Each structure stands twice: as structure tokens, then as C-alpha cells.
């Protein structure tokens, strides 16, 4: 199959969408598909990557004539399907949708983020103006939590399927016996950005520490970098939390080594559409604490793979419970080490997208000739 992926952001930029799309491209090529990428991210040296780049402030990943460029490429190459990857607001990605519709090609749109009320309102406004629900789209979300708000906006005429982010599960599976340190080691991994509420994570750790007897030692490591790092460092100094380390960004191999010494993984962001770092930790055998309303709930069940909470206080209680109760902690770790999150393995993800591509071919054929396929991009 000939597949064209369209994404605002791609390598060499590093982020959740960029890495996930690059891994999907690699795995599809290994499966024998002819796969190319169109992106508005500058760079060079990657085969099969077409960069539609304009000189814009801050290297914004968009092109004012992106639709025209993409139509030209799509009509010349005629891929079997166009697979578009979008966040909450992704102008270049939606130019890819528009180009595919105008070129008469099947299109699948994967939404990698959680649509908040503002985003939902924006897409309802675009529907009233441009009737995008009639374009023959097939949408996917990375979790049930992310799919619900999309379905509420898309209505019954746009299929919204859930296809998990992919992970080489076996690569994260632990080898040997779990490390037993003197202190309960709590780990978190993610970008230190304000929307991730990293300072609130520090307050969560401090509150959990207060609920654990002093004779139980605790330490924490928060991996990542970003604009909130300075504020976090000031908070740690002010509160005397020298038992929390901020080592910066880690490579995948470094994260694997860190997880080998971890006892609890915390993913507290309330609007986490999926939680790839949490999936890596769960695959490595670590009990996960996360929000019940986040995408992490797709692969973490309360008392099985970890503990879930709806509120800040419930998350604090979950971390403190796992720190105090070594029997529960070891039982969950044993379950995670013995089982794999099969739905997130690459064979399952490829199968899921294969079904989406087939459905897109059917819906694209059915929608041809319908009015209302003009769009904002």
C-alpha cells in the first residue's frame, strides 16, 4: 500500500507526535508498505520526507500555500491513502485533509490531543461554515478519553475509531529481578511545560510524602525539560525537597535504565490524551498512578496495572498507598511484568490502521460528488 503521512511537526523536532509518527512510518515500511511523509518542519537527510517550508517567525510549522503544494504532490503520486496527524490546532495537517479531499483520495485523520471546550467550539464553527462532516473523513483518536469529545463534535456521519499509540512492548519488558532500593523511588517523565502542571506534581509528591511514615524512605526523579523547569527548581529549594531530582531530558535507553530502579510511576496530567511515558513504565513492570479521566485509563486498571484517581487528593492517596503498602506495590509490579499491553503493540496498531484505511476508501467513494467539500484551508 502507498501511504502518505501529513504532519505539521516531524523529525528532527522531538515531541510526542513527531516520535510516534516517525515510529509508525518505520514500522509500516518494515511491513512492506511504500510510505512517505509531508511536513512543514525544516530539516534534511531523511529519505521519503517532503518538506513544505516557508520562512516564518519562530519556525512555525505551516505554509501559507500548503494546500496547493500538497494537492500537487498528491495528484502526481496518487497514494492509496492520506494519513493526517493533528493536534488541537494543526493548520498544515488540515491543509493535508483539504488537499486529499480535493484530490479525491481516502483520508484518515488521527487526533493526538484532547479537544478542550475551546477546540470543540472552533470545530463546530468550522462545521457550520464548511460542512467538513460531509468530506468522507475517517477519524481516529489515541484513547477512549480523547475520542469522546471528538465524537460529540463529529456526529454520526464521521467514524471516530480508537487506535492506540504504538510501542515496541518487548523492548521495554524488564529482564532479571526487579531492583529493590532502600527508598521507594517515584518516577515521572514528560515535558516540563505549564500545561502539564509540573509544579502541581511537586505539590502532589510533597503531600504524598506527608502521608507516609518517616521510617519509609522516599525519593523521586522527574525526567524532562521545558519552560517550567526554573519554577520547579525554585519550588524545590523553597520547600526543602532535596529528595526530588530534576536530571533533565533523557534518551530512551536512559529512561529504561531509570525505570529499572523505579517503584512507582506518576502521570498526573488531567488532560493526557494517551500517556506514552506511562505505557513505557507499565510495560517495564512499574505500577502507574494516573488520572481516571485521562487516556492512561485505557491500559491501566485500578488495582491491576496501577491506581487511578479523579482528583488531586485521590492521586496523593494513590502514591502514598503504594509507598506504604509494599505487598500491593509488588503485586501490581508482578502483574505488569508478567503481562503485556497487547493493544498498544505495533502489530495491533498496524491492524487497527489497516481497518481505518479500508473504511476511508469506502467512505471516500461514497462521498465523491457531494456538495460541501470546500474548506477553510
UniProtKB/TrEMBL annotation:
Alphabetized UniProt keyword annotations: Glycosyltransferase, Transferase
Domain Glycosyltransferase subfamily 4-like N-terminal: 15-170
Source organism per UniProt: Planotetraspora kaengkrachanensis
One MF annotation (Gene Ontology) recorded for this entry: hexosyltransferase activity
Glycosyl transferase family domain span: 185-333
Coiled-coil blocks: none
InterPro entries the record matches: Glyco_trans_1, Glyco_trans_4-like_N, Glycosyltransferase_grp1
Name assigned to this protein: 1,2-diacylglycerol 3-glucosyltransferase
The keyword Phosphoprotein appears for this protein: no
Nuclease listed as a keyword: no
One Pfam family matching this protein: Glyco_transf_4
Entry-linked Gene3D superfamilies: Glycogen Phosphorylase B
GO biological process: carbohydrate derivative biosynthetic process
